[in-house]
Amino acid sequence: MEPWQKKHILGIKDLTREEMETIFKIAHSFRELSQREVKKAPALRGKTIVNLFFENSTRTKISFELAGKRLSADVLNFSSNMSSLNKGETIVDTIKNLESYHPDILVIRIGYSHSLINLSQYTSASIVNAGDGSNEHPTQCLLDMFTVQQEKGALEDLRVLIVGDIMHSRVARSNIFGFQKFNSRVSVCAPPTLIPYDFEKLGVEIHDDLDQALKEADVVIMLRIQKERQQESFFPSIREYVENFSLTPERLKKAKKDCLILHPGPVNWDVEISSQLKEIVHPLILKQVENGLAVRMAVLYLVGTRKREYEISD
């Protein structure tokens, strides 16, 4: 296996298929580590990771914190609502101040799309993108694909359907880039007002009939309606959205028997997915959460030990 060269992980668009496969292999090893009685490895001992979350998060923030600690790094958590940002300090000034402590890795979630490449100019640390605006969410894509690989045995030549708030979804964009690198066909399904006008340029098929789109899908990724990012109403009512785009027991019958249903969370039950399907789909969604820890351990490990041989020690 070639030594890892990338200093930052800013987006799936920047990763090669081979680099993604490397992440999956390392994640598989760390998944096994998490099942042991002693769940720590000394791989990042002496390294400092700062989790900088300028937006709210539960799963991503907790899993990055736990991933760093499982790798024996010193982990610091930054919360913007209790920081000097409330006193007028800029994000750039925050990064510059943190640089004085010589951190090794900054894990950043931020509301501004495409902003991380600019912020990387103000730190010598590696930056891992934990979600930037509506641009990308690379580790969510990686954990989604890792889960599909485990369930299907391979990622090649699948039909992947992404349903919901495509307009505001960084998860959708990352998954489009990711699955396409494995020669899978990606489709999106949403009200026309929730599909960006230029999305066809990404090489995806566009649908507004979920019943029809479900029939050929091997993988379905249901997305949350992101009301916090919507400055206006993109459909008449939640009731109408549910009627046309919610995954119901009746609709699921139209899908393939072995179709996988994923969701990045949090799930709004009876909006994106009927609560009647909870026992059927929730176990795999929880497996995504479990795999998220292994994937984020792999990502931190690779950027934290780049140019070294890969060894996962007890």
Task: Output the keywords.
314 residues, globular, alpha/beta, Rossmann fold, four-stranded parallel beta sheet
Write a short abstract of this structure.
The chain has 314 residues and is an alpha/beta fold. It has ten helices and nine strands. The chain folds into two domains: 139 residues, Rossmann fold, CATH 3.40.50; 152 residues, Rossmann fold (3-Layer(aba) Sandwich).
Task: Please provide a written account of the structure.
The protein is α/β, with parallel strands linked by helices. It folds into 2 domains: 12-136 and 291-304, Aspartate/ornithine carbamoyltransferase (Rossmann fold), CATH 3.40.50; 138-289, Aspartate/ornithine carbamoyltransferase (Rossmann fold), CATH 3.40.50. The chain has helices at residues 17-33, 59-70, 91-99, 116-119, 138-152, 170-180, 210-214, 238-245, 249-252, 278-304, and strands at residues 48-53, 74-79, 105-110, 126-132, 159-163, 185-189, 205-207, 219-222, 260-262. The strands form 2 sheets. Strands 7-6-5-8-9 form a 5-stranded parallel β-sheet. Helix 5 (138-152) crosses helix 10. The chain is globular, with a radius of gyration of 19 Å. It starts with 16 loop residues before the first helix and ends in a 10-residue tail after the last helix. Mean pLDDT is 91; it is low at 228-232 and 308-314.
